[in-house]
């Protein structure tokens, strides 16, 4: 039998209460930590996957295509930018050809009109000079005009018909559009532009084909995220248990506190009300109201104390019986001693017997048996197992999914038929070279012819002056006609020639620009053809020839690197989730520590001491002795509160009874009464003298009840004797005397 002192018991109880509270707080903190960890696992990593992995999975096609284009552009022997340059030059050339054609047509029209006008003026001059009017004039003026006509140089005629026909053929070869075709006619891309268009289409098809390999990976990622969402909802449901458990324990504590508080409150209110309203000068029969309510509250408190005392006495007996059984049956199991049953099974049985099993609804898939979780926590198993998360969140299954997808191997085995890609179709190169050679026109003779009449305006002005001189020597109407010819030559000089020269300058500039573009076209076409040949060789070379020498090796290498990075992301994520669930979140350690702390406290600190005699005696001494003292004190206080003050009563008797007060009348003092006598002795001797003696009431006395009249007999009680003795004594304020002449001055 173990001995434990009351101080150790109190300390053990406090420690037990503290450990239990701490354990509950630790459990709730554990569940909150689980919730936070899984929230972090699901939300933070989910965002990472959404913004990083899933984005890359979606953009795998453009990524690989851009990588291929970048490698091709960085190749010294393969510059795909030349294809774009060629395409741009062809479009610009087509527009420039149209502009040259329009300007050349306008210039040709202006030259034709000017030649016609000049021929007419020359013929008119000849007709005037051959007329009779000129024959009759001095030969000087007319001969000068005739001599000048021989020196006038003709304006050249520019014919670009053959050049325009060749240009139209070049436009058709390059762009596939016939400049002479009617509006709305069907137009098809020429060979050169089609090469660039085919390159874009080829790479677009390649992007789509590579992207199709990512479907399985995206599906697996969605499955992982869905399982994490289930785990997150599971973690949220775990917080229900400690929230439901805490208030139940609080209700018991609140009930006990209210019971003890009721007793203490009744006692305090009874004492306060009794003392605050108690007045000893008021007779007991006249004490009503608050004084009586104070007494009643005190009595209720006394009764509750007695009830509580018997309750604790009965509880001690029950605890002793239970402790004896627990000490023999439960403690060996709790302390881990060998037995015929496992600790887990006995604990589950105990929990099911003492506590109603609580099944927390997790989701549509399963429920959580709280008693089972507690028992697993007692065995210090991982939370992943304790919470039965394997049916909801299968970490091994996720890892197996990564293995089954085998994305790296699929990317390594990526097979794209690059042999079907024909960047430079057969015969296209010859046609392009023919078109380029046909575009090499010689515009030198045309430009030289246009520059012949760079400054003919002075000659036209001289013609006009000679005509005016000739008109002065001619008779009318010949002179008038010659003046008209002179005005026409002035019009050619001031109007026709500036407009013709402006058209001539525009045509020359356009021809020079066209000549430059044709030279650039030749260069860009040569570069594009070289690029097309190298690109065709790049896509049709056998695999494995080099890191950048063939498309198959390059694409497989890039796809493998990309898939390795994606799989590495997923593996890191799954590893993080696994470590978080199995290790980082915890292994039920707070519950495990709480269980062993409570089991040690129950067996060593509570169950075994309760099974001893000294604990029972100590519990009785702690609980019963204060209650007995409190009960006795309250009873005595109540007794004093229901009688007169004894010292005040003694003074009143000494003043009212002349015999008791020291009178010498022999009739009233057969036995001497001294002040040293006790109060009870004085009262008895006083009443023994007045046995069978009637003390009449004074004639003027009124307001007394009938029971106060009559003789004071020995059978009357002590209180009745005192009351009647006092009631028969005249009031000192009345100043009345008895028939014998004695002044009775007893104060009430």
Automatic annotation (TrEMBL):
Main localization category: membrane
Keywords: Coiled coil, Glycoprotein, Membrane, Transmembrane, Transmembrane helix
Region: Disordered, residue numbers: 690-748
Membrane topology (UniProt): Multi-pass membrane protein
Location(s) in or outside the cell: Membrane
Chain coiled-coil ranges: 83-131
GO cellular component, one term: membrane
InterPro entries the UniProt entry points to: Prominin
Transmembrane intervals: 251-276, 297-323, 613-634
Family the UniProt entry places it in: Belongs to the prominin family.
UniProt xrefs under PANTHER family: PROMININ PROM PROTEIN (PTHR22730), PROMININ-LIKE PROTEIN (PTHR22730:SF1)
Listed name of the protein: Prominin-1-A
